[in-house]
Design goal:
CATH topology of chain C: MetI-like fold
Number of strands of chain C: 0
Oligomer: heterotrimer
Number of domains of chain C: 1
Distance between the termini of chain A: 46 Å
Largest sheet of chain A: 5 strands, mixed
Structural class of chain A: alpha/beta
CATH class of chain C: Mainly Alpha
Number of strands of chain A: 10
Number of helices of chain C: 13
Radius of gyration of chain C: 23 Å
Distance between the termini of chain C: 34 Å
Strand content of chain A: 5-15%
CATH architecture of the largest domain in chain A: Orthogonal Bundle
Chains: A alpha/beta, B alpha+beta, C mainly alpha
Helix content of chain A: 55-70%
Radius of gyration of chain A: 29 Å
Order of helices and strands of chain C: HHHHHHHHHHHHH
Shape of chain A: elongated
Number of helices of chain A: 24
Chain lengths: 636, 373, 273
């Protein structure tokens, strides 16, 4: 039995550590795919330290967890002393209160806090950005407090009560008695509580995910959106470094503790004791100072006050980020306008963006929604009219992209890209004869290898083209029929995706998927087996994504500056080269790779484009109805 | 006579409606060694904690040098305490434990050094300055606790069962040690214990308490020889307590016989409790005995035998140096000075019957007493 | 004096916890009972819950299975660690803790890399001639993800319970004629019940509410309650229905932990190891 236990334990430890080994190995991989080791490199670590954004996120995480730990530890220790001295019945009540965040699932805590902050901030105080650094900090302190309390309370209970009596007997005031005696006795509890709180806070994803706005995001939350996109291997490098750091810290802590235990039983000479005690005090003091200075620096000096922060909320993979020798557009903007700092975050569907905006609690200065969503936002008074005096580059926008149906008077939007929705498939596995139209997405031959849009509008659009309905129908019976069609597709589907498509199609995990032409081109660039098909005869979506400023914006002028910047033909050209979408600025084509300019996927002939149709704004109740149907499809 | 230092006036203490102390009136003289003696839960530790300032009485007054000090916090009282389990600070070494109070009082460093060194000498712990507390034996910890309290030169030293955690040998040594220190320093000691032997051997005055009330105050000899009621008689030493009737002065009747005694001043035919100490009983041949009984159990105790003798269904404890076999019949004689007469009290009939006697039983109750409060 | 201090010191904390745990739950209830479009009182969200009982049941099932597997795997490990020397115990304890401190998102992503059709395990299977298998996007993969992520939450409380069992009791049982199996069944196991209960709670609660694991490792038909809530808030733009679902999830968890506590765990800090 002992032997089986030992073997089982070893196996379990292997089980626990294999995924981490995979991640660590991936950090040295020259290739991007986690499952495919192509060669050894240390370059990912160089990339990591060059990535200001990633380091900023790490800093954000450290700021929140250090401050919340310090506050929760102090606050919690004081509270624990108070609770300890309460009458037993009252103590029980308070401890059940303490246990609420412990027993409640994180998602409920996150949801409840975010609703509270939005409710109080937006509805009661009328603030635009209710979800800020401070609310995130409050959330972290709240879920850290119980860890401190539950670690300190047992130490207080174990402590001989007469110790404080003795101190007071010897002349200490209650406060002196606390600092001279009680504190020493409960210190192990405080330290373990603080460590627990710190690690929980540093690694917290779920609560932060619900509570954070856009202008202050922690590392785990951003990693969540990273794991949707093809993840950049430098993230693995960061994981490896963090792993090493925590490993070293833990080993050091354990060694110290083992030494301390040993010392307890061994006599020590006077000199050694005094020296060691002094050393320990100095070390503890120094550590506390360093932590204070770091957190102080991080809070007050890291972000120069005179800088404007511009919050840009855009689709994932939708701006040139410097990879593959492209222009790093945001960096370029910040270099040209040093008084503006861009805070860039991403969404992967119009609906997610809309949800985030309408739930409230955040500040966004620039968004880039699609046509139908712009119409919806306009009708719901969620966009600000643009001051075109600040956007002189609007002159370059082609005539055909002006006076569009969604913004007929050109008041709210400046086109960013346009494109089609077609079918991306892998020629290695998919018989081209089968790719004749949207119905290939229902083909049982490729069951388990088909992807589908994870947003309602695009998913219903495909069903509507296939069933021959108007894509802007408001007929509930037709919509129900579409839902049935989508439900029928579920058995052959691998997954509903948005940004996840990049990774899955590129590494051939999936073979067929509908997606935006521009992104399809990007993927085709990564994997030469991929091909694009536009079902002309059935019809397809023709979309325009345009830049807008929502009503919750704080920096309208800077936002207009940014929009103007993106309409600079030179910038737009460099940008389009990377994102592969079609540009509404003919002038930009002069700066682009000639091959792209003549690519039929990006720029189909007018003849083909005539088969396309664009989504229009659906009335509120129909939008909700479609959304509800799609939820049923996905959950059913 | 030395002057009065502390007085407790009509002291009442209640916790959650339960009365722990019931109208305590007591005074303590300067230079006195006074012991509060009683079983666990009798209120003796509560009384001590009130004097120390850790508890505020529900009603009544605590006077120190004639001034009411009810609301004076412990750190402003000229009183120091030696706690039950010493309450030494585990994060400090011996030196720093003893110097604690002096450092809080912000005394100059050389004076602290001088006084701590002096104290270490008094409690014979020289050379142990830098020992950690958990590396000390129980007796050494005890000395540190005493030194830590005494170094502050308090007017009164409160000792809450300070020897309870020590083994028997050590306890005896420490009793002498404590008495010596008290005599050397002249500080008033208020000592709490449940161990009657300890109380009798060390104290100038013993206060016997039970159920939150004082049962008897007096010198150790008086308490032993003239217990006021059945509780005191039983708690201090072993006693056989019998129902009797005081026929007249110096005449008491029990067990169907009339005995001569040395007590007087009772009402004629007043029912009384008769106390007979087991060591006072003389065993004589059957024919010469006032009473005749059968030996039902014998326990060897080292110095003597404890034998239980059945007299018409009532069992007595007798201590004797001679062996008597179980089943043998013996006679006893009672001299007048061996018979103590007490008024009837609420304790009558509760003690003094050895029908269910067992040696282990006694030790068990003593151990339980350690855990008091 | 002491009592006043107690109230003085604990009141700010009590107010904080009321403001940021209890009141938010009230806000959740408020959202759950109002109509998403008009904002007036409505029971519509609760009615809409009917659609999700299946999802809820599935979530409970998955997390119970995971908790059970965690127990089966975790107990021997905890037992093994508890019976090592002091230093080995510390090291092993640390090794169990360590994964908990690392990003669970990335660790779960690593499983995607391991399990997917073009993943490491399948490449290996193909290499040795077994051929590729459907590993990811199955219920098994979701359970695996849960077991992997929450196993430490089972091992740690079990360990701290088992290590506290007085070895004298084992000796006493052996002395009274128990063999190894009997000792385990009659002494060790009953004494580790508090650890088992707290371990099951600590695995069950995060497992029943997860959304990341099922999103990454599950297929289109493994939808858990956490997924639905996340989607209502982040995509579906129906926070009111999301709030109603959260409320149900919360009640479920409180009922479950309530049952667990009834079975033994002590009231103060029963959840923490």
């Amino acid at each position: 039995m002992k032997k089986t236990n030992r073997i089982l334990t070893i196996l379990i430890f292997i089980f626990l550590y294999i995924p981490m080994a995979v991640l660590i190995v991936a950090s040295f991989n020259t290739g991007k795919d986690i499952a495919n080791f192509e060669g050894f490199t240390l370059h990912r670590y160089v990339e990591l330290f060059q990535d200001a954004h990633l380091l900023q996120l790490l800093r954000n995480s450290l700021v929140v967890s250090i401050i919340s730990t310090v506050v929760a530890t102090t606050f919690g220790t004081v509270a624990a002393v108070g609770i300890h001295n309460l009458k037993p019945r009252m103590r029980k009540v308070v401890m059940s209160l303490t246990n609420i965040p412990m027993t409640n699932p994180d998602i409920v805590t996150g949801v409840s806090l975010s609703l509270l902050f939005v409710f109080v901030g937006t509805r009661m105080l009328g603030q635009r950005d209710a979800l800020t650094f401070w609310t995130l900090l409050i959330a972290h302190i709240t879920f850290n407090l119980p860890y401190v309390i539950l670690n300190v309370m047992p130490k207080l209970q174990q402590m001989d009560n007469s110790l404080t009596d003795a101190a007071m007997d010897l002349g200490c005031t209650p406060l002196q008695a606390f600092f001279k005696v009680t504190l020493h006795e409960i210190m192990p509890g405080i330290v373990s509580g603080a460590i627990m709180a710190f690690t929980m806070s540093l690694d917290d994803f779920v609560i932060s995910y619900f509570v954070s706005g856009l202008d202050f995001v922690t590392l785990p939350v951003e990693i969540y959106s990273y794991t949707k996109k093809p993840i950049q291997p430098k993230v693995y490098a960061m994981f490896t470094l963090l792993f090493l750091l925590i490993f070293v810290l833990m080993v050091a802590m354990n060694l110290l503790q083992i030494r301390a235990d040993r010392n307890k039983t061994v006599r020590r000479s006077k000199v050694e004791t005094k020296a060691m005690r002094t050393f320990r005090r100095v070390a503890a003091g120094a550590l506390a100072c360093v932590l204070l200075v770091i957190s102080g620096y991080l809070i007050f000096f890291a972000k120069p006050q005179e800088q404007i922060t511009l919050n840009v909320y855009n689709w994932g993979q939708y701006i040139a980020d410097g990879s593959d020798d492209s222009m790093e557009v945001i960096r370029e903007f910040e270099t040209r306008y040093p008084h503006i700092k861009v805070n860039y975050s991403t969404y992967d569907s119009n609906e997610i963006m809309y949800s985030k905006l309408s739930n409230g609690g955040i500040t966004v200065d620039v968004i880039i929604p699609s046509d139908y969503m712009i119409a919806r936002l306009i009708s719901e008074d969620m966009l600000l009219p643009l001051d075109f005096d600040n956007i002189p580059n609007y002159q370059y926008i082609d005539e055909s992209f002006r006076n569009t149906s969604y913004d007929p008077e050109n008041r709210y939007s400046v086109p960013y890209t346009w494109g089609t929705v077609g079918i991306l498939y892998n020629t290695k596995y998919v018989d081209e004869a089968d790719v004749t139209g949207w119905e290939v997405l229902w083909n049982e031959k490729y069951a388990g290898k088909i992807l589908m849009f994870g947003n309602s509008r695009d998913a219903f659009g495909i069903a509507q083209y296939l069933l021959g309905y108007d894509v802007n129908t408001t007929d509930k019976a037709e919509l129900q029929a579409c839902a049935d069609k989508l439900l029928a597709q579920k058995p052959v589907l691998q997954q509903y995706v948005m940004d996840e498509i990049f990774a899955t199609m590129q590494n051939e995990e999936a073979w067929i998927a509908p997606y935006y032409a521009g992104d399809c081109l990007t993927m085709m660039g990564e994997n030469e087996n991929l091909a694009f098909y536009l079902p002309e005869s059935q019809g397809f979506n023709l979309f325009i994504d345009a830049m807008c400023i929502p009503t919750c914006a704080k920096e309208k002028e800077a936002a207009e500056l940014f929009i103007n910047f993106l309409c600079d033909p030179e910038i737009a050209g460099a940008n389009m080269d990377w994102i592969c979408y079609s540009t509404p600025l003919s002038a930009a084509k002069d700066y682009m790779d000639p091959e792209t300019v003549f690519d039929p996927v990006s720029y189909p002939s007018d003849e083909i484009l005539a088969h396309g149709s664009s989504y229009a704004y659906l009335p509120e109740d129909i939008s909700r109805y479609v959304e509800g149907l799609f939820m049923e499809v996905r959950n059913g | 006579m030395s002057k009065e230092l502390i007085r407790l006036q009509n002291l009442v203490m209640e916790f959650d409606g339960e009365r722990i102390l019931d109208d305590i009136n007591l005074y303590f003289n300067d230079h006195e060694f006074l012991t509060l003696l009683g079983p666990s839960g009798c209120g003796k530790s509560t009384t001590l904690r009130i004097i120390g300032g850790f508890l505020t009485p529900t009603s009544g007054k605590v006077l120190f040098d004639g001034k009411v000090i009810n609301d004076v916090p412990p750190y402003k009282r000229q009183v120091n305490t030696v706690f039950q389990r010493y309450a030494l600070f585990p994060h400090l070494d011996v030196y720093d434990n003893i110097a604690f109070g002096l450092k809080v009082a912000k005394l100059p460093k050389d004076e602290i050094d001088r006084r701590v060194t002096e104290m270490l000498e008094i409690v014979s712990l020289k050379g142990y300055e830098n020992r950690r507390i958990d590396n000390l034996s129980g007796g050494q910890q005890q000395r540190v606790a005493i030194a830590r309290a005494l170094v502050n030169q308090p007017k009164v030293l409160l000792l809450d069962e300070p020897l309870a955690a020590l083994d028997l040998r050590l306890r005896k040594d420490m009793q002498n040690e404590l008495k010596r220190i008290q005599q050397a320093t002249g500080i008033t000691f208020i000592y709490v214990t449940h161990d009657q032997e300890e109380a009798l051997s060390m104290s100038d005055t013993v206060v016997v308490m039970d159920k939150g009330r004082i049962q008897q105050i007096g010198r150790p000899e008086d308490i032993y020889n003239e217990p006021k009621n059945a509780f005191v008689a039983d708690f201090i030493g072993e006693s056989n307590i019998l129902d009797g009737v005081m026929l007249a002065d110096y005449k008491v009747r029990f067990f169907g016989r009339t005995f001569v005694c040395v007590d007087k001043g009772f009402a004629p035919n007043e029912p009384v409790d008769v106390v007979i100490r087991p060591e006072d009983i003389d065993i004589v041949p059957q024919s010469e005995g006032h009473l005749v009984g059968t030996v039902t159990s014998v326990t060897f105790k080292g110095l003597n035998y404890d034998i239980i003798v059945d007299f018409r269904g009532f069992k007595w404890l007798i201590q004797t140096t001679d062996f008597h076999a179980v089943g043998s019949t013996i006679g006893i004689r009672l001299n007048p000075e061996d018979i103590h007469i007490m008024h009837k009290s609420e304790y009558s009939g509760m003690f003094g019957d050895y029908s269910s006697y067992s040696a282990e039983y006694d030790e068990l109750t003593e151990d339980a007493g350690d855990e008091e409060e | 004096m002491k009592k006043n201090n107690a109230i003085l010191l604990s009141t700010p904390y009590i107010l904080w916890m009321l403001a940021f745990t209890l009141i938010p739950l009230g806000v959740v209830a408020y959202y759950a009972l109002t109509d998403p479009a008009t904002g007036v009182f409505s029971l519509g969200n609760l009615r809409d819950l009917n659609m999700y009982w299946g999802v809820l049941w599935e979530s409970i099932l998955y997390s119970l299975i995971s908790a059970f597997i965690c127990l089966l795997l975790g107990y021997p490990v905890a037992y093994f660690i508890a019976h090592q020397g002091a230093v080995a115990q510390k090291i092993l304890y640390m090794l169990v803790m360590l994964p908990m401190c690392m990003s669970f998102l990335l660790r779960t992503l690593a499983w995607v890399g391991l399990l997917q059709d073009t993943g490491i395990i399948n490449d290996f299977l193909e290499m040795i001639g077994i051929g590729r298998m459907q590993l990811i996007r199955t219920p098994g993969a979701v359970v695996l993800g849960m077991v992997y992520n929450y196993l430490p939450y089972m091992i740690l409380p079990l360990y701290s319970t088992i290590v506290k069992i007085n070895p004298r009791l084992i000796e006493a049982a052996e002395d009274l004629g128990c063999n190894t199996v009997q000792v385990f069944r009659r002494v060790t196991l009953p004494l580790s019940v508090p650890g088992i209960l707290s371990g099951i709670t600590m695995v069950f609660v995060p497992a029943v509410s997860t959304f990341y694991i099922s999103q990454k490792l599950g297929g289109t038909d493994t939808v858990l309650i956490g997924d639905v809530i996340e989607r209502q808030f982040k995509q579906g733009n129906n926070p009111n229905l999301g709030a109603a679902l959260s409320l149900v999830l919360m009640i479920l968890v409180f009922v479950c932990t309530g049952i667990m506590n009834r079975f033994g765990a002590d009231e103060e800090g029963g959840v923490i190891a």
